[in-house]
Amino acid sequence: MIKLEHVTKIYPGQTEPAVNDLSLEVPDGEICILVGPSGCGKTTTMKMVNRLIEPTSGKIYVEGQDVMQMDPIQLRRSIGYVIQEIGLFPHMTIAENIGTVPKLLGWDDARIARRVDELLELMGIEPAEYRDRYPRELSGGQQQRIGVARAMAADPHVMLMDEPFGAIDPITRDRLQNEFLRLQQKIRKTIIFVTHDINEAIKMGDKIAILNVGGILEQYGSPSEILSHPANPFVEDFVGADRALKWLNLVRVEEVMDQHPPLIFDTQSVREARQFMQERGLDFVYVIGADRSLKGYVNARDLEGQQGWVDAFLTPAAVSIQLGTSLRDTLSELLASDYRTACVVDEEQRVRGLIQLDAIQEALSARKGGER
User: Fold this and answer.
1) CA 74 to chain centre
2) CB of 61 closer than 8 Å to CB of 25
3) What is the pTM (predicted TM-score) of this model?
4) Would you say 9 and 53 are in contact if contact means Cβ atoms under 8 Å apart?
5) Are residues 92 and 25 in the same domain?
6) Final residue in a domain of this structure, among 228, 251, 274
7) What pLDDT, on the 0 to 100 scale, is given for residue 245?
8) Positive or negative torsion for Cα 38, 33, 179, 184
9) Which of 38, 185, 297, 319 has its CA 20 to 30 A from that of 261?
């Protein structure tokens, strides 16, 4: 848990506080987003947690300990830290970068090597191929994953993330956000996350602290609370008029997907597939393997007058949606693919359901109706 009690920061030579009497609590295993306009003190607040910036007054507790009573070096080594610029050491290999803090903590080489490979696998990066490379040999998205892995290397309970996905292109950013949310379901770290983007805040946060210029806390609550009940005109204006659309970030695709969609197996005959579609009035049907892995789909018109097995007439699926994806990201993927429907798959690419554009539109309409 992270707890701030009446924290104020006034920089030398300034009369107005950068952070003004801020109190909030981040429960264990949750992501707290600090968001607001430039000059609101969000980065200052985050840096006071690991004492990169010293508070003028107030108390900050990390896992029940007053940070001002802790050795600042040991404090920082116990907290994961991810920044927008990634901050990888260019002269070090990927393995050496990830192992930086464990080495400072006195871990032996074998333990560090095991941890490096474990984290690379967790990030979806092949250890044998990448551990001995240098940062310049990686893409921006891969470098960002390594930055997160380095922050997790000593298995800290608390992490600080300063606009970690702000310096990469929008497509890679969406993918990394989704990957990190899935990862957080496994690791359950307590995280303070700084961003200037309210859409990112709504998507990533369990709690959101909306700060105003001068470090004034305007509202602290869940994304749903802030969207449904903005505390004042500042929050309402900062969140924006399209609150119903932003609400799509809070809903996961599995909440509205068809959990029992019509599917056929790749071992079925063309005759069976035609009959299956005719009985259900379908123009096409998705095809799965024995393990429910997505193989593609077949069109009714392609099977007319044909014989044999459906696997000979497969068309690859242009898009599939991962479990846990927000409706907003799902909508973006469907619109980009020019398809109105897609299979929802798990990490092993097994089909778990079907999502249609109509279902998203219905959910959005229901939300708008509830706001009236």
Assistant:
1) 28
2) no
3) 0.81
4) yes
5) yes
6) 251
7) 81
8) positive
9) 185
